[in-house]
Automatic annotation (TrEMBL):
InterPro entries: HTH_LacI, LacI/GalR-like_sensor, Lambda_DNA-bd_dom_sf, Peripla_BP_I. Keywords: DNA-binding, Transcription, Transcription regulation. It comes from the Bacteria. The keyword Transcription regulation applies. SUPFAM superfamilies: lambda repressor-like DNA-binding domains, Periplasmic binding protein-like I. SMART domains: HTH_LACI. It comes from Streptomyces sporangiiformans. This is LacI family transcriptional regulator. Residues 1-53 form the HTH lacI-type domain. The keyword DNA-binding applies. GO terms for molecular function: DNA-binding transcription factor activity; transcription cis-regulatory region binding. Residues 310-351 are annotated as: Disordered.
Length: 351
C-alpha cells in the first residue's frame, strides 16, 4: 500500500479507502489509485485483512449442489447480489441435501466456518428429519425455513410459497373447475410442502373437494410424466397445479399421449416460469418467482446482521406473480352444469 500511495501521489490512508470501497474519495483519485494497483499487480492479502479488521469480507453459501432451475438460478442471483457488496463468495454443496453424510447441511456449514466467513446463506434447505440447528458465531439467513442458532443471529428471507400456491389454485377455481388436483414435489423439501399447504388452503376456502395426492414427483420432467400418466386416468380431472414447471412439462406429455387435450380437457398451471414455459405447446400458465429480489434481500439482511444494523427478524415473504398463458381455460362444457354454486362464474383467460 505504501508503494501504491507513492506511485499514485496520495496517502496510504487514501489507498486503504479505495481498496475497502469507503466513501470520501473523489472519482479522479479513485481511478488513479486503481490504475496504479493494476499496473503494480497489487492484490490485498485477505488473511492479513481478516486479522486486522476482524472480518474476512467473505460470505458463505450452502447450496444443494443441484442443476434444477430454481436452486441453480437462485445461486447465480446470490453471487451477483454479493458482487456489489465487496464481499467474496464461498460455496459449499450438500449433494442435493442428503444430510447425515459427509455432504450434508451440517458438514457444509462447518466447511464454510473452517474457511472463514462473516455470514452464511442457507439456500433451499430440505428436511432430513433433524432441526435446522447450528452452533456458529456468525449470522445466518435461510431461504426456505427458519433455523435455530447457538451463537450468531439468524433470519429467514423467501418468496411466499404458500400464497403462491393459493394464487395458482384460485386461478383454476375461478375459471370454473370443480376442484384442482396437485402434482406435488418431493415432500422433504420445505418449498414443496408450502405448495401443498397453499393448494389445500385454497380448496378449503372455496369449499371445493380435495383430491388425494398422487405419488410425489422429484422436480424432473420424467417424474411429472410418470405422475401425469396416473392423473390422466382420473375421468373427473379437469385442472392440475404442478409444483414446478419441469414436472408440468412431463404432465403435458402424459396428457397428450392419453388423448387429454390441454386446455380443452385439462388445464395445467406450473411454478417458477422457466424460460421455456412461454414456448411450450401450449404456452404454460405459471407462477413467477423473482429470484433476484430474494437474493438481494437475503444479502442485504445478512450484511445488516454482520455490521450490527437493524434487520427484519420475522420471516419475510416476497411477492410472486401469476403469468397467465394458454394452458388454462374454463372446464369442458359437460362439467359446467355440475359446477357447485359456491364457485365463481368462469372468466375468460387473459391473453
Amino acid at each position: 500500500m505504501t508503494e501504491v500511495a507513492r506511485a499514485a501521489g496520495v496517502s496510504q490512508k487514501t489507498v486503504s479507502r479505495v481498496v475497502n470501497g469507503e466513501p470520501h474519495v473523489s472519482a479522479e483519485v479513485r481511478d488513479r489509485v486503481l490504475k496504479v494497483i493494476h499496473e503494480l499487480d497489487y492484490r490485498p492479502n485477505n488473511a492479513a485483512r481478516a486479522l486486522l479488521m476482524g472480518r474476512h469480507r467473505r460470505i458463505g453459501v450452502v447450496s444443494l449442489g443441484s442443476a434444477l432451475y430454481g436452486p441453480s438460478t437462485l445461486l447465480i442471483a446470490l453471487e451477483r447480489a454479493m458482487q456489489r457488496t465487496g464481499y467474496s463468495f464461498a460455496l459449499a454443496s450438500t449433494l442435493d441435501g442428503q444430510d447425515g453424510q459427509d455432504g450434508g447441511v451440517a458438514a457444509a456449514v462447518e466447511s464454510l466456518l473452517d474457511q472463514g466467513v462473516d455470514g452464511i446463506v442457507l439456500s433451499e434447505p430440505v428436511d432430513d428429519g433433524t432441526p435446522l440447528r447450528f452452533k456458529a458465531d456468525v449470522p445466518m439467513v435461510s431461504l426456505g425455513e427458519g433455523v435455530e442458532m447457538a451463537g450468531g443471529p439468524s433470519a429467514m428471507v423467501c418468496a411466499d410459497g404458500v400464497a403462491a400456491a393459493r394464487i395458482a389454485t384460485e386461478h383454476l377455481l375461478e375459471l370454473g373447475h370443480r376442484t384442482v388436483w396437485h402434482l406435488p414435489g418431493p415432500q422433504d423439501w420445505w418449498a414443496a410442502r408450502d405448495r401443498v399447504r397453499g393448494w389445500r388452503e385454497a380448496l378449503a376456502a372455496a369449499g371445493a373437494p380435495e383430491p388425494a395426492l398422487p405419488a410425489e414427483g422429484d422436480w424432473t420432467p420424467a417424474s411429472g410424466y410418470r405422475v401425469g400418466r396416473l392423473l390422466a386416468r382420473e375421468p373427473e380431472l379437469t385442472a392440475v397445479f404442478a409444483a414446478n414447471d419441469e414436472m408440468a412439462l412431463g404432465a403435458l406429455r402424459a396428457f397428450a399421449e392419453a388423448g387429454r387435450r390441454v386446455p380443452d380437457d385439462v388445464s395445467v398451471v406450473g411454478f417458477d416460469d422457466v424460460p421455456a414455459a412461454a414456448y411450450l405447446t401450449p404456452p404454460l400458465t405459471t407462477i413467477r418467482q423473482d429470484f433476484s429480489a430474494v437474493a438481494t434481500r437475503a444479502v442485504d439482511v445478512l450484511l445488516a446482521m454482520i455490521e450490527g444494523r437493524p434487520h427484519p427478524a420475522e420471516p419475510d415473504g416476497l411477492p410472486v406473480e401469476l403469468t397467465v398463458r394458454s394452458s388454462t381455460a374454463p372446464p369442458p362444457r359437460r362439467t359446467l352444469t355440475d359446477r357447485p354454486a359456491h364457485l365463481p362464474q368462469a372468466r375468460p383467460t387473459p391473453t
